[in-house]
Amino acid sequence: MLEAQVSCLAAQVEKLHEKGRFDNDLTLDVKLVRGYELQLGELVGQASQSKRAEIWDCLMNDEVLHVGVWGQWGVGKTSLVKHIHDQIVQDRSRFDGACLVTVSQEGTVGMIQTDIANYLKLDLTEVSGVYWGARLKEALQGRKLLLILDDVWKYYSLEELGIALERNGCKLIMTSRSSDVCEQMNCHELVHVATLPEEEAWCLFTKNLNYDAPFPPGLEEVARAVAKECAGLPLGIVVLSEVMRGKRRIHQWRNALRELRDLKFTPEFMEDEVALCPEEHRVTKRKRVQYITDSKIIENEEERQAQLDKGYATPDELVSACLLEGETNGGGSRVVKMHDLSKDTAIKMTDGELMVKAGLELSELPEEPHWKERLKKVSGLFNKIGQIGRLKSSRCPKISNLLVHISDSFIKHMKALTT
């Protein structure tokens, strides 16, 4: 009896070993790890707890291999799947581990494959990129992993990625702002994440404020109004509450509320800000003013002075309203950067008229499909673009501002462009 069991185990080991062997004598060196806990705080509110339970129930269903979590920016999709990730890492009764990959708008097949391979401690560099999918598929086969693709903007072929989903094997969760993308990727179940109800939004706001005492008289009403400006978006609530943390005087809260309500968030206004202050890139006030004034047709000196005054004043207003973050750089100059929530808001407001590829270390601008007829402004600042490839620039006759180093031959069809 014991001899039979040993023989059976030996056969299983040999089978697993053969799965990791290629014809050219390369062997997959896969040292599976369950992953690391992300050390998140607890989810606040019944709505968030309910959505986490809904996602978990989908994962526990043997018939559901692919779950799509979708909803507008800032509603907490990433936070939810990170909590699921930690739950898997803590309790390995269903999965061996969890692998979280942030895809983002600039994601590629190769980037996703590399992140998964890094989790598996799998070296893909020994073979050409065309074989990466095959290597990942072999490495994942027979394993019980939860793969999480966060912030997916477009369709990706799971076959090309090398992700094979199966019962008692790997499962996949993806998050996206678009239910269409989830359906295109053949999700078996869709979970919609909406904004928080008003009371739950207030609970998250106060929890993140970390107040150690009741609100002073009159302050709670103003604080509730400030929190309400976040429109139930957890990301906005967290950002704003962090900025207001430690402020206990009512005039500070009234001023913040006034700034939030009084700023005119027109698409034109936000286009300037998002183009000049890409996420995580710091811009000095002087450089910012230079870009804005140079991008406009200014008829006379009086108008130019007005633009200069506005250019220097606006960042202070945005910092006060928590839409820009201000700090002093090593040279003693005041610099600003835009938070990703503000950036997403600005791009959404422009309704396809703005393309921002700033600060992405690009060597060239995106390919033709990104150049839509509706485009009016394009920013490629803070990149390493030496030249722009052959694009049908005649498709973009409405572009009036193109912030990038370019050749004359590229812009000759952009009739609205000012130089």
Word description of this protein:
- Helix 6 (158-161) links the parallel strand 3 (145-150) and strand 4 (171-176).
- The longest helix has 20 residues, at 301-320.
- The strands form three sheets. Strands 2-3-4-1-5 form a five-stranded parallel sheet, with helices on both faces. The protein has a three-stranded antiparallel sheet with strand order 6-8-7.
- It is globular, with a radius of gyration of 26 Å.
- The chain is of the alpha/beta class and 419 residues long.
- It starts with a helix and ends in an 8-residue tail after the last helix.
- Helix content is 42%, strand content 11%.
Structure described in brief:
The chain is of the alpha/beta class.
Could you give the topology of this structure?
Layout: H1 2-19, H2 46-60, E1 66-70, H3 77-90, E2 97-102, H4 109-120, H5 132-140, E3 145-150, H6 158-161, E4 171-176, H7 179-184, E5 189-192, H8 198-209, H9 219-228, H10 234-244, H11 250-262, H12 267-276, E6 283-284, H13 285-294, H14 301-320, E7 324-328, E8 334-338, H15 340-349, E9 354-356, E10 377-379, E11 401-403, H16 408-411
Parallel strand pairs: 1-4, 1-5, 2-3, 3-4, 9-10, 10-11
Antiparallel strand pairs: 6-8, 7-8
Helix pairs in contact: 2-3, 4-5, 8-10, 9-11, 12-15, 13-14
